[in-house]
Specification:
Layout: H1 2-14, H2 22-47, H3 50-80, H4 84-89, H5 105-128
Length: about 130
């Protein structure tokens, strides 16, 4: 007797809508999946947009350049005991850093900062739009 009442209550709770079929459940599931896919596709489009890719490339180049400059400055101060002005403004003729065109370390510092700041500016502009 108890078992019959229990089965009856289960049937009543499951049959909330007589017109709701397994196909309706499948359709609802597919619609939820489409919404989920649309959300993830929108996010991927946002991540791989040309502005974001340009920002990432500029940020990477600027960061690598600044790390390289910092390493060179640290090495010159600790190993050779040079002064910071001599490091940044001194001639590095004969070293690989000059590239044969007379570039000094301050030029690389400015280039690295320009890359990082321009990528930050692109991010700010992207956020506002």
């Amino acid at each position: 007797m108890k078992r019959a009442k229990k089965m009856e209550s289960v049937k009543q709770s499951l049959s909330v809508d007589a017109n709701y079929t397994i196909f309706d459940a499948l359709l609802e599931s597919l619609q939820k999946q489409k919404e989920k896919d649309a959300l993830s596709t929108g996010l991927l489009k946002q991540v791989y947009s040309p502005t974001v890719l340009a920002t990432l490339v500029l940020m990477a180049l600027g960061s690598v350049t600044l790390v390289w400059v910092s390493n060179l400055v640290w090495h010159d101060i600790t190993v050779w005991g040079k002064d910071a002005t001599l490091i940044f403004f001194g001639s590095r003729t004969g070293e690989a850093i000059s590239l044969g065109i007379g570039m000094i370390l301050i030029h690389y510092l400015i280039i690295g900062l320009a890359f990082v700041l321009s990528s930050a500016l692109l991010l700010i502009i992207k956020r506002r739009t």
